[in-house]
Specification:
Elements: E1 9-11, E2 32-36, E3 55-61, E4 72-73, E5 84-85, E6 98-109, E7 115-119, E8 127-134, H1 137-140, E9 158-161, H2 163-172, H3 179-188, E10 203-207, E11 210-216, E12 220-228
Parallel strand pairs: 9-12
Antiparallel strand pairs: 1-8, 2-7, 3-6, 3-8, 4-5, 6-7, 10-11, 11-12
Length: 229
């Protein structure tokens, strides 16, 4: 037996590439996602009462990993060398390619169809969203739960900016007031591969329409430049 899933819409996010996306939701609060619901789901009554909730679950499809799955994976949190079962991980390479993300609900706009704005997204631009459910704290918050190998908050990097990058950010502040905060939140999570340890290597990450070049010495991410992608 098979099942068909139709997207409610496709999430617009600051992440045109998979590299640089936070590995979990809500690690980069300034990462905003905008979802315009497609017909026939774009009726205001379909989201009536949703604005009363602060957070929602987004069910989505790992569309860039479709039809590819592995019984074991190597999570970055374990250094990229230790294998665990795919069902003991949050890897995108899953039998059915479905994901679940808890995000902040920032706005519900029903003036022209339905447009939802979220904060703390961890999805690539264009991700198909297949369901939205409100987060219910009393039932879904479990403070005593065990987190296995991903228990505890990951260590973060300090983030600094070269004069050229700082000047570009200052020039863009009027049009993109949250850009610096987003860069800091994304790079603080250290998006490098687990095996990367060359402090001279220059990395590139794209956010919105900008190409950010940076280096990392293991404790600090230093932004070198900020160019139009």
């Amino acid at each position: 037996m098979s099942y068909r899933l139709d997207p409610l819409g496709h999430l617009a996010t600051p992440f045109p590439d998979k590299f640089g996306i936070p590995r979990q939701p809500r690690l980069a609060p300034h990462a905003r996602g905008v979802l315009r619901l497609l017909p026939p789901y774009d009726r205001p009554e379909a989201v009536r009462g949703l604005e009363a909730f602060s957070h929602v679950w987004l069910s989505f499809v790992f569309h860039q990993s479709a039809d590819t799955w592995h019984p074991t994976v190597r999570p970055p949190r374990l250094g990229g060398n230790t294998r665990v079962g795919v069902f003991a991980s949050r890897s995108p390479f899953r039998p059915n390619g479905l994901g679940l993300s808890l995000v902040e609900l920032l706005a519900v706009d029903t003036r022209d169809g339905v447009v939802l704005t979220f904060g703390g997204v961890d999805l690539v631009d264009g991700t198909p969203i297949v369901d939205i459910k409100p987060y219910v704290p009393f039932a879904e918050s479990v403070p005593e739960a065990r987190g296995g190998f991903i228990d505890g908050t990951p260590a973060t990097l300090a983030v600094s900016f070269a004069p050229e990058a700082a000047a570009r950010l200052a020039a863009l502040a009027g049009e993109h007031p949250a850009l610096q905060a987003l860069i800091e939140e994304v790079l603080a999570q250290d998006p490098r591969p687990a095996y990367a340890d060359d402090p001279a290597r220059v990395y590139g990450v794209r956010l919105h329409t900008f190409d950010i070049k940076w280096r990392c010495d293991g404790t600090r991410a230093h932004v070198l430049s900020l160019d139009d992608a």
